Every structure is written in structure tokens, then in C-alpha cells.
Amino acid sequence: MNAYIAGLVVPLVILLFRNSNNRKRRGLPADVGGDPGFAVRNQRVTSPITSAWEGITTLAELFERACREHHDRLLLGTRELISREMEASSDGRSFEKLHLGEYQWVTYGTVFESVSSFASGLANIGHVREERIAIFAETREEWFIALQACFRRNVTVVTIYASLGEEALCHSLNETEAATVICGRKELKSLTNIAGQLDSVKRVICIDNDIPSDASSSQHGWTITSFSDVEKLGRENPVEADLPLSADVAVIMYTSGSTGLPKGVMLTHGNILATVSAVMTIVPNLGTKDVYLAYLPMAHILELVAENLIASVGGCIGYGTPLTLTDSSNKVKRGTKGDSTALMPTVMAAVPAILDRVREGVFKKVNAKGGLSKKLFGIAYARRLQAINGSWFGAWGLEKALWNFLVFKKVQAVLGGRIRFILCGGAPLSGDSQRFINICLGAPIGQGYGLTETCAGGTFSDFDDPSVGRVGPPLPCTYIKLIDWPEGGYSTTDTPMPRGEIVIGGPNVTLGYFKNEEKTRESYKVDERGVRWFCTGDIGRFHADGCLEIIDRKKDIVKLQHGEYVSLGKVEAALLGSPFVDNIMLHADPFQTYCVALVVVSHPALDEWASKQGIAYSDLSELCRKEETLKEVHASLVKEAKKARLEKFEIPAKIKLLSDPWTPESGLVTAALKIKREIIRKTFQEDLLKLYAS
């Protein structure tokens, strides 16, 4: 009888555990002002958090506090460059390979001295607080030091991607009237190329000591000096700090730009501090034992927040690059260590493209080995997946330890073997990649949703949430509200979940766009309670536990896997210039790195071309399927794209030719002949899937 009862009770306890876990409330409905909608707050707080540290209101104060508290601990680490070598590939091309040594570390106390000296050096070379400083460089130790030094002088930093094109670079510097530019030797070349177009640059500080002769001041009208010389000048001639207030603008961050030139978003110290404070409460046990691998662009809000967060809790930051991340990365000399192996980080931020690359590399190696190794990997993966789907707790038992030892230890070694938490943002992460990381690396992923306009703060998935496809509950610094979008058919009264445009409110919502009041008024609102809101243009829905899922976008702008924005309408307008195109719909999938297109061909133009080429065909649909036809039309599209100066990622990599025209009668275009994007996508769903699969 007892055995019978036990047989009933044990499954019942498991069922109750699972159900209670599923019912865990992560976000709660909130009573907020502003536009009517369905608002949710984080279950941890009753009102948005502004600072997690008593008396701290700016990033400058936060950093100084951390340096006092962790004075002798290691803070910043950079790998020694042993040699650069050229390696020939099988096709005869040569590639640069780096032989990098171990990390060389500096303490919090030493970094604070460098920051204070560089801040004094800026004053000594004539930079005043009213002038802005642009940092145009790859992520590195000096980037962080320069940022903190500017904060100690209450100087606004203009952040510019190191990969930004010359037109956008010129626009960013001129619009902000940047008086001083801090850059690396490589970026200095781009700067000298546009020197004649720059209106305000008076000083250039080169992070590298070997300043090229063609960057001299006599040619370009600016004074140029090295980073180390500015620091030395400040050390010998110290100047008192001029600390900012919470409402002062810390950063003008230029986004990568969805259409046209990039926009500068104004971020105050209080804005960034709110997000840093909120994320600190989410990541479990973040502290002095953590080692962070920094390789994403610090000109991106995700990386800037992450580095300030790690420094605030006494952790270590080791610098790397995407091209030297693992032992098998492109620029790592064969037989030497990548950044992950050398650093052995415990936490890292990642974008989906990086995690997808790790996943593909592992599966490629597993398939290449085959045999018993492949079979064992398959069994281990299936068992762990089963455990996670059944109960997250079950995935962390003795069986997990066994599979880690037998199978997944080598996979975990790819990223150093000690990863305990990964923060992922910047673009949607596929469910397959999220599951792979959970299983093979044995680490939870905090998938976040946010924008530059909200200091990366929006939502963030909890470490104990095993679900995929969602971006978690609101961060403790935000309210997330859904408002109706009738034109798209989304309503907060929809069942089974409320749906609508995502609007983010809280202390992390930024001031707006620099010198663009019209766009600021369009996207930002302040309600009757004084809460500032940003209208994202994204469409989401709330699950019963308060977690958000992104399901659509109001505008026809899509962010690809690597984070590039594609304006579908802009590209379509350019490609319509091809004589072979009667109509076209570009399609961009956030989980892909390229675009595809459906092309309705122009009958006369294609007939004429086929006749000249002597190509025989029975009907137009047969002609559209021919390989030579596809090549010709695609070449024509590329030609038009280049004429319109489109970026490579905006040009469709693959196309499907359609012989039947899109008419209002077919329901694929409006009476005004504008394409009905969603209906076309659904109608040709199989064709689009084949294009991505081919």
C-alpha cells in the first residue's frame, strides 16, 4: 500500500513543481500614466530603480567608488602582441595571423590614476567642458580610460563605430561639433581622408604611439599627439575634477542608422546608471570573482553598459576582438590561444551571430568525427534537452555533471570553460542557438531587448527561465507598455495575450535625438506623472507570466543577424530601376545575414534579352526558371544597387523570378499598386523558405 501511495505522490510532487515553476510571475501589471495600454513592471520592484548604490547618481561617481573599494584588484587586461605573420591559403591569398601572449593586467587603483591623469591632460591641451570629444576606435583598454576621463571633466563623449563609413563619420563629427577626436592608428587614416570636410576638429589624440606622418597638423589644421603623451602631461600637471550631475549628457551615441545618415541619441548619466543598476539586480551573484570578455564595439550601448557594470562590482575586464575570440578564429595563429582560452571568462555579452558561429563550428566538428563520438554527442544532447524541457532543475543534476565530463567539456573549452552566464542582445537569438548554449555550455542566457534610445534597457530574461523565443520581463528600471495599433490588427484586448506596439518608460529613457527635435517629438513622450516614454515601433505580446515576446515591427525596417538595418522600401525603390523588374518585394529575416527578393519580371525586357541570347523557351515561367536568366536579372539588380550606393547587405543575395504580374485583383497590391507585404509573404512563403535553404 505504501509503495502504491509513493507511486502516486512522487509524480504528483514533480507535477506540482513543474506547474509552480511555469506559474512563476516575472512581471506584474502596473498602473501607469500616459497613453492607454497594457503596462507591466518587474516583479522585483514597485517603481523603476534609478540607482542601486546609495548616494551615487552619475557614472563618474560610480567608477570612483569602485576604484576606492577595489583599489588593489585587477580591472583591465590586454594581451601582449608577440608577432604578426602572413599566412598563405590554398588559393594563393595571404592573411594576417596574430600570435598573442597572456593578458597583462592593471589594477583599479592604477586605472583610476590613468583616468585622472588623462582627464587633467585634456584640460592641459586646451579642451574645455563645453566642447565634445569623439571616440572613434576599436574596443580596447584606452577606450574605457578615455571614457571615464571625459566623465571626470563633465565632457560629453560622442561614440562612433570604428567601422563607420566616411560619409557617416563626417556627418557625426560635424553635427556634434566635436573639438577633439580620440582614435587608433587605423581609424586615423579615415579621419585624414575627410580632414578637408571637418568643421570643428581642433585636436586629434592617437591611441597608438606610431603616428603616421601624413596625419601631421600642418596638413590638416589640427594638433595631434599620442594618448600616452596626454596622460603624461596630465600626470605632471594635475587639474581638479569637474564632476557631472545626473541630468548631464554623458554620451551622444550614433546608431548604425536604419535609413540615411545615423542619428545621435543623447544619453544622460542618470539614464545609463539606471540600466546598469537594473541589470546588476538580474544577473545572479555578479561580483569580484567575475571575469568579463570585452570584444563587442564599445560604441554600442550593450557593451558600454556591460563594461561599466563589471567595473562597478569589482570584476575584471579582459579585451579581445571578434577575429581572435577562439582558438580557431580567423586571425589567431595556428597552435596559439584565442582570447577566450587565454582569459577563461565567467560572463560575457554576445550577439546572435557570434553564438550561431560557435554552434555551427561545434556541429561541424562533431559531424566530421562521426562514429561513436557523434552518436555519444547526439545521445547527450537529446538527454539534456529532455531534462530542460521537463524541468530546468532536472537539467542541473548528476546526469548533467556526467554529460559535461564525457561530452560537453570540450565544447565549453571553446569559450574558456568557465562561462556561467551570457547576456545576449542586439538582434533576435534563434531558439536552436539558445538551446545549444544552455545545453553544451551549461550556462543560462539572459536574452535582452532594448534600444540605444532606452540605454539598452527594456526587458531581460531571468536566469532560471528555460523558455526560448521570449525576451523576458521588464527590467527593474522600466515599465513596458503595449498600446493598440489598429492598422496592424494588434490590440491589448487580444486573446490569449495582449498585443500592441511596445512603449518603454522609465529613468533609462534618453533625452532624444541630437539636433533633431521633430524626430524626438515623434518618438518620445512625457506623461502626466513625469515618466518619459519611448515608442519603439516594435510589436510585442505579453505572456501570462509577464514575459515579452517580439512578434512584428510597425515599419518595414528589419535588423539582420549581424545588427545591420535594412529599409525594405528604400531598397525596393532602388531596384525597381532595373529594366527587368516589373515589381519587387525584398525580404529580410532577422535570423539571417542576407536578404532575398521576389521579382516580378518585365515581360518585354526579358523577351528581348532572351531573343538576343538565342535562348529557346516554351513560356515565360520556363524562362524565369533558367539559371542564365536568374544570373542576368540578379546582375542587373546589383548594378542598380551600386548606382543607388546601397550597402552589400542590402542587396538581395538570392532571388525568385515570377512571371505572373501582381495586380489589385490578385490581392497582392493595393489600388494604388503599393505592395501588400504581409499578404505577399504569406502567399510566397514556401518560395522564400527555399531561397534561404538553397
TrEMBL record:
One GO MF term: long-chain fatty acid-CoA ligase activity
Gene3D superfamilies cross-referenced by the UniProt entry: N-terminal domain of ligase-like
Residue intervals of the AMP-dependent synthetase/ligase domain: 98-514
Any one of the GO CC terms: endoplasmic reticulum
SUPFAM superfamilies: Acetyl-CoA synthetase-like
PANTHER family: BACTERIAL LONG-CHAIN FATTY ACID COA SYNTHETASE, LONG-CHAIN-FATTY-ACID--COA LIGASE
Record-given protein name: Long chain acyl-CoA synthetase 9, chloroplastic-like
Originating organism: Cicer arietinum (Chickpea)
Gene coding for it: LOC101506008
